[in-house]
Amino acid sequence: MSSVIDILDLSTKDIEELISVACDIIANPDNYAEKCKRKKLATLFFEPSTRTRLSFEAAMYELGGNVIGFSAANNSSAAKGESVSDTVRTVSCYADIIAMRHPKEGAPMVASMATDIPIINAGDGGHNHPTQTLADLLTIYREKGRFNDLTVGLCGDLKFGRTVHSLINALSRYSGIKFVLISPDELRLPDYVMNNVLIKNEIPYEVTTDLLKSMPELDILYMTRVQRERFFNEQDYIRLKDSYILTPDKLETAKSDLCIMHPLPRVNEISVAVDKDPRACYFKQVLNGKYIRMALILKLLGVE
Amino acid sequence: MVIDSINNGIVIDHITSGMSMTLYRFLNLDKLTCSVAIIKNAPSSKNGKKDIIKIDNLIDIDFDVLGYLDPGVSVNTIKDGKIVSKFKPQLPERLVGVIKCKNPRCISQDEQELTHIFKLTDRENRIYRCIYCESKAK
Q: Do residue A84 and residue B111 have CB atoms under 8 angstroms apart?
């Protein structure tokens, strides 16, 4: 493995190793403080990002490494029309590893074909975002201690939500997983994910529009934002939007050890009042994202 | 209608009726300087009618193009007036530079001289997806 473009580039063994290293980093951060001394991470962000870019940068700094890069396409030669391949070939002369976000789907794959240094896909349009999935997996592992025998509710925009698709791909490789797909009809999981992942691998799933009805059986509730612009008419949006806002009263029937997740940023789909609930894990996800990115950087750089 | 037989060349037979011009275009046969005969709607015992392409030279044929566009064809290689090999192209695992991705959000729309590559993801339903964005080939 030299680059991570898609979560499926990582075997379940790779993921278990990354989680093991991440847990060791959490337990013994001082042991890792100089692991990447004199190594440079280039963060090539062709579109804005708060969490992901800062998470990568914090990860590299905590490993004792340095960071170079840009945070918007107009700060790079892309604004002059330079190709992704040429940008990456150039940056490869300065850096040991690249984390790239790009609005075009497949750009990180093109980057990985243009260089020998590792490329980490930090999000390519609505396509893949493997390190978010790794952050999700580390959170699930730390909260539940396992990846099998879980009922996972995915709620909100399941059609365009790339984090949802990646998480389904990743968890479908474990046994005893059941998905409850909670969304308005307009934002249901695309057929190709349903057919190629769930049906093909005989993963049990349930499609519903009713969050409350599903709540009691869930071990994990993964919320995503329902976006107004995805609806064809305003009336449907108004009719459905409040069904998918998580409030403390909707959690009354939930399990006591439910794990509430969200890739963030949230707008209003999780009430701020839920933040005080010990089952709220979405800010833990952010922190776990940094640790798992540290583990991934170490693995891709071959640092023991 | 009589078309001269060829001594050294290639005959693409059992082309689905009406597909010969598409194959001609995708195989870049217009760039050849040798004789190329396109026979449309020839009688076929199997399908009623078929198209045939005869190329009066031993050229390299892109079997992936044939396997993707018309997997029922057979390719006969002729040397000294005799058929020396028959080949039925299969659905290829990858299509390199044959078709283009139509997804406007795909990097292949922007990146200079990037080869469009598709992989076969569902053989039964003949579904190919772009390796960059995973959009289905149309």
A: yes
pLDDT at B73 over 70: yes
A positions 109-168 inside 8 Å of B (CB): 109-110, 124-127
Distance from C-alpha of B56 to C-alpha of B53, rounded to nearest angstrom: 10
Q: Which domains does chain A have, with CATH numbers?
A: 7-128+286-301 (3.40.50.1370), 131-284 (3.40.50.1370)
Which amino acid is present at B84?
V
Q: Which residue of A has its CA nearest to B122?
A: A196
pTM (predicted TM-score): 0.89
- ipTM score of the complex? 0.87
Does A105 contact chain B (CB < 8 Å)? yes
Helices (H) and strands (E) in chain A, counts: 10, 9
CATH 1.10.3230.20 fits B9-87, yes or no: no
- How confident is the model at residue A191, as a pLDDT? 85
Helical H runs in B42-84? Answer: 63-69
Query: In 3-state terms, what secondary structure has residue A133?
Result: helix
Start and end residues for every CATH 3.30.70.140 domain found in chain B? 9-87
Query: Which residues does chain B have within 8 Å of residue A125's beta carbon, measured at their own beta carbons?
Result: 105, 133
- Beta bridge partners, A124, equal A102
Burial of A14 from C-beta contacts in 10 A (0-12 / 13-18 / 19+) = middle
Picking from B83, B39, B24, the residue whose alpha carbon sits closest to that of residue B58 is: B83
Q: Which of A5, A7, A9, A10 is nearest to A110 (CA)?
A: A5
A124 → chain B, closest CA residue: B133
